[in-house]
Design brief:
By secondary structure, the chain is α+β, with helices and mostly antiparallel strands. It has helices at about 10-20, 35-40, 65-75, 90-100, 115-125, 135-140, 145-165, 175-190, 250-270, 275-290; strands spanning about 25-30, 50, 55-60, 80-85, 105-110, 130-135, 195, 200-205, 225-235, 235-245, 300-305, 310-315, 330-335, 335-340, 345, 350-355, 360, 370. The longest helix is centred in the last third of the chain and has 20 residues, at about 250-270. About 45% of the residues are buried. Bound molecules: zinc ion (2 copies).
Length: about 375
């Protein structure tokens, strides 16, 4: 049963089984840690999940065995049978597959190395065909369920609260690293377990690098400052970018800010189910192109959010393969930017939920240039 308090692990495992049945698999191995978390709630650093059409096993070694048994008994993990790995994962996996009589078992091609697959093949011999699959669990994760939407909405509100306090940390004479530390400690204070990625504070000419790392550069009058930060709440990631300026900035910076703001508005207006990620990207790109800033837009318009800070779908150029159709229930960022080498850059980023007829912006901090 799905509710707002706990992930619907049973429902997720049922969806995976349905997909297995549809594609002629009588079992499936999940090895990507993030997909294990999604399907079972397990968050350890090592483990494998094997499901048959009837049941699910979670293979863990001695480091996690007791914790997993307790968590299953207490309902803090999905409906799995713990299976202790005594020596090697490949041997335990092959033995379990044999015990269950599984013959055709799906594996996550994007997450199993050649060496690991060879070990599984040697351990199981001819009894099991390990059949590569592509993005099966990732496609399930694309559309968020009620539990996930509620969590991401709450996380986005908390992150926006942090953004509303940026004015107290950004100031002339402070270094980028000092400002980043203030943001990180506010994320901690807001209840996030950790930053979703290394916080970006990029000032003056440094703001021309989309993924700049904070330096010891001191903020000074006339700087544009990109502030891009995110947090992880109960495993789920949110991500936000705001712009600050120290004192009055010149007309060139002003027009950059306006262009990115208008590009973001165009992208937000383009979002609805049935539209490709590349169409949303094109809407932002058209605005920047018209102002002569097309070449200054150095990345895609957005990315999915969930258990990972960058997950499907991609909102990028059609040529980059971002052709996935948006569906209601997807949560993604909308973050166009424009970067001028030697001068500086501007990015604005919000998190949205795709709804039946458009989108709901989850991050609600003011988008105006913060002048300090
Ligand atoms: Zn970001
Ligand atoms: Zn982002």
């Amino acid at each position: 049963m799905s509710d707002h308090r706990r992930p619907d692990w049973s429902g997720r495992l049922h969806t995976l089984r349905t997909e297995c049945a549809r594609t002629g698999l009588d079992g499936f191995v999940v090895s990507a840690p993030v997909n294990l978390t999604y399907l079972t709630g397990f968050t350890g650093s090592a483990g494998l999940m094997l499901c048959s059409q009837a049941e699910t096993w979670l293979l863990v070694d001695g480091r996690y065995d007791l914790a997993v048994r307790e968590a299953v008994a207490a309902g803090r993990l999905g409906p799995v049978h713990p299976e202790r790995v005594e020596r090697r994962y490949d041997l335990s996996l092959a033995a379990l597959a044999a015990r269950l009589g599984l013959r055709t078992v799906g594996i996550e091609a994007g997450h199993v190395t050649v060496a690991v697959l060879r070990a599984w093949q040697e351990a199981a011999g001819k009894a099991v065909e390990w059949r590569p699959t592509d993005g099966v669990v990732e496609r399930q994760r694309l559309v968020k369920d009620a539990f996930e939407v509620a969590l991401l909405r709450r996380a986005a509100h908390l992150l926006s609260d942090v953004a509303r306090r940026l004015g107290s940390w950004v100031g002339a004479g402070r270094t980028e690293r000092e400002v980043a530390r203030s943001i990180d400690s506010a994320l901690d204070g807001a209840g996030f377990s950790q930053p979703a990625f290394p916080t970006i504070v990029a000032s003056g000419p440094n703001s021309a690098y989309p993924h700049a790392r904070p330096t010891d550069r001191r903020l000074r009058t006339g700087d544009l400052v990109v502030l891009d930060f995110g947090g992880v709440l109960d495993g789920y990631c949110v991500d936000l970018t705001r712009m600050a300026a120290l004192g009055q900035v010149g007309p060139r910076a002003q027009s950059l800010v306006e262009a990115v703001r208008d590009a973001q508005a165009a992208a937000l207006a383009a979002i609805r189910p049935g539209v490709a990620g590349s169409d949303v990207d094109a809407a932002a790109r058209r605005v920047l192109d018209a102002r002569g800033l097309g070449p200054a837009f150095l990345h895609g318009t957005g990315h999915g959010l969930g258990l990972e800070v960058h997950e499907a779908p991609r909102l990028g150029r059609a040529e980059s393969g971002a052709s996935e159709m948006l569906q209601a229930g997807i949560v993604c960022t909308v973050e166009p930017g424009a970067y001028l080498e030697g001068f500086g850059g501007v990015r604005l980023e919000d998190d949205v939920l795709v709804t039946a007829d458009g989108c709901e912006v989850l991050t609600d901090a003011p988008r105006d240039l913060l002048v300090v």
